[in-house]
Amino acid sequence: MTPTAGPAQGDHRTTYREVLAEPRFRLLFSTRTVAITADALRITTFSVLVFSSTGSALLSAVAFGIGFIPQLFGSLLLGSLADRLPPRALITGGYALTCATALLLALVRMPITASLGVVALVSLATPVFHGASSRLVAQSLEGDAYVLGRSLSNVASAGAQVFGLALGGAAVAALGPRRALAVSAALYFGCALVVRVRLPRLEAGKFDGTPGGDSGAVRASLRGAGLLLRDRTVRRLMLAQWLPVAFVAGAEGIIVAYAGERHFAPGRYAVLMGCLPVGMLVGDLLVGRFLRPRTRERLVVPLVALAGLPLLGFVAEPGVGVSSCLLLISGLGYAYGLGLQRPFLDALPQDGQGQAFGLLGSGSMTLQGVGPVCLGAAASAGTGTGGAIALAGGAVALTAGWIFTWHLPTIGGPDANSAT
What we know:
The protein is mainly α. The protein folds into 2 domains: 9-229, Growth Hormone, Chain: A (Up-down Bundle), CATH 1.20.1250.20; 231-407, Up-down Bundle (Growth Hormone, Chain: A). Helices cover 76% and strands 0% of the residues. The chain contains 19 helices and no strands. It has helices at residues 16-20, 23-54, 57-65, 70-78, 81-84, 87-107, 112-123, 126-140, 143-175, 177-198, 217-230, 232-253, 255-261, 268-290, 293-298, 300-308, 320-332, 338-347, 353-404. Helix 2 runs antiparallel to helix 3. Residues 1-9, 205-214 and 410-420 have low confidence and may be disordered.
């Protein structure tokens, strides 16, 4: 495997073409993009299925988010497996397991509580599969190529989510929710088959660097997570990637309620919800493609502020046009994460990268599930939906100020990631 380059690589800017020329990344990138499409299809279709069966908006919302919150617990309890087992088996097994879950939901008429339990149980293992894949990407791409690889993944993720939502609506309308779930299962199966056939088999010993590798998975996972979170640099970089996204996701989660409260025309909420991912896509392309690594890292704090400050405008309860512009601009700020990718990778222990990536992703997903609940409660408590969205923007701006107190975007000089 090619070792990951660190700060010594300086300010060299890689191109997307160079990143896609790496065959292992290209395989993982393409299958993950298809899997994200399948995720969006499965999640929305399952939510529709639950609503059609129960008529409960609450249960439908629970069905939508049930796969998010348990991931943090899965990372804490099982995350070390991402470094202890061969990646091909883990990634293939992850896609196969989600395929089986989608088929089970499609073919077996279980009680709603049982269906929700199955989805939650499977989500406990999700950080292990994603951690193994992320570790393999980090070991396949060097320096700025790794950051550009993450940029491509972010862009593809945004596009795949939009496409998956559209595909879900079309599939449910044409086939019904259960058959639409079977379509998502077919996509997962295709990903599992391609990874199994195309990804080389790597020896397990190369991925068994966890201290005390012969101990139980749960004990090793808890110890590994503790070591990561006790490291001030790693902890700060994780929080910097978690918090702004969680607050903005919370604002996104009450856009539908905001549109209803403001009596916008039917369907306008979909326009508003589409503005954030479009802004994210554009921001990642611009920052990833045209800025050098040093510049990206220097712009972390301004971009975090850009993600939050436009949301403050919702305190005035603007109409559709202004709201769309504010959300679009906020989405541009999501590109701040690109400036943290290389410092985060450089700060990780070589034998715990898989667990670290799993913890990073699962923590983000969990907080994105918690964010809408907290802001929804704030809106119900008297702030109103516009005030709650503005509250989220203020929290993001405060997070930018916190990052400013310790973020040192220096490459090739003093350690950019040293704790202060």
